[in-house]
Design goal:
about 350 residues; alpha+beta; 2 domains; five-stranded antiparallel beta sheet; three-stranded antiparallel beta sheet; 9 helices
Length: about 350
């Protein structure tokens, strides 16, 4: 294992570490994760479905594996022994979405109930998700989704959608004593790192020492380049009555290097509400705040951002602070260039 940078006890049963894996920071559980690998379109990991052994019925072809990885919600990050190359870029992690989630046991599926800190209750998920699972239609929709990529915003690579065999779905229903039989799939993605900006912002979850981590891995100028491009895209969309938005938090859906993840959460549709420019939940404002928390807005970030957004001048950010100044400048730019607009930034 790579050198341990930091150890953290997330809960009473699982120790986790921040390690360097192929030159990038990665969160990994100290204990190996036991899974069953079911080949779908080939024997390679990315062509397979991964589930807990309890969900594999007798007679189905599978391999028992003990993987170095990290579980987050209904996803599993697998640290690869050899990197995978996608579009000329090398990745050391494969992320499997829809492998089950932690509840009163590890990697659990439930099609009727939801588990939280108070235990099992009725499924009231506002997005219509099943606990630990990804519905087949949702998996393919997310795989094909290019909401951010179509505007040149950096996004993680989608590798494959692998359909969960019906025999496993039936086994899930049987073990969880459910009558529902739902077609499920898993989305496979390639990640350069699995450290999300929220891992740094949310000190209650991870006590990641930011100073050494940022010094080694976070490039303020690159973040500024990405953020400035997002701002320019948002301005261009507003002129056509549209805008980028997110269901959830940007910091929870953005990696430490500035890339965005979880395509299901983004939209570029016309907003339902009039100007949300000053809203704390605004998309662009959250993008800027996520970078601010990770890079501490050094001068090279500010200079790079201003060089790429000519509509933000010094009076704005010197009087109101950088982020508020950018939002103020963007609002004035809209008023000058767009007759009818409404935008949740």
């Amino acid at each position: 294992m790579a050198k341990i940078v930091h150890l953290n006890l997330l809960n009473s049963s699982r120790e986790e570490a921040l390690v360097e894996h192929y030159g990038r920071p990665v969160l990994v559980e100290k204990e190996l994760i036991p899974v069953a690998q079911i080949p779908i379109s080939g024997d390679e990991l990315q062509k397979s479905v991964l589930v807990h052994q309890r969900y594999v019925p007798r007679g189905i072809k599978h391999r028992k594996l003990n993987l170095r990885g990290f579980r987050r919600g209904r996803t599993l990050d697998v640290l690869l022994d050899a990197p995978i190359v996608v579009n000329g870029i090398s990745y050391g992690l494969l992320n499997f979405k829809g492998v089950g989630a932690d509840a009163d046991d590890a990697m659990v599926f439930n099609l009727t109930k939801w588990y939280d800190n108070s235990g099992w209750g009725e499924n009231s998920d506002r997005f219509g998700r099943y606990f630990g699972a990804v519905k087949r239609r949702d998996a393919y929709d997310e795989f094909r989704d290019r909401t951010l990529q179509q505007y040149g915003i950096p996004f993680v690579e989608h590798i494959a959608v692998n359909d969960v065999p019906d025999s496993i779905s039936r086994r899930i229903s049987c073990l969880e004593r459910e009558r529902k039989h739902i077609k499920l799939s898993q989305l496979v993605r390639a990640f350069p790192t699995n450290v999300r900006m929220d891992d740094v912002l949310n000190k209650d979850n991870y006590c990641i020492s930011s100073r050494e981590l940022f010094k080694s891995y976070v490039h303020a100028q690159k973040l500024a380049e990405i953020d400035a491009h997002v701002a320019e895209v948002q301005l261009g969309l507003a002129k056509s009555g549209k805008c980028l938005g997110i269901a959830g938090s940007v910091s929870e859906n953005r990696l430490l290097n500035g890339m965005f993840v979880d395509a299901e959460n983004y939209t570029d549709a016309p907003p339902k509400l009039l100007s949300l420019l000053k809203s704390d939940c605004g998309f662009l404002k959250e993008v800027l705040w996520s970078s601010n928390a990770c890079s501490k807005m050094p001068q090279d970030y500010v200079h790079e951002f201003l060089a790429r957004t000519k509509w933000v001048n010094q009076p704005y950010y010197q009087s109101n602070g950088f982020i508020e100044g950018v939002i103020d400048a963007l609002e004035d730019c809209f008023k000058q260039n767009v007759r009818e607009w409404s935008c949740g930034l």
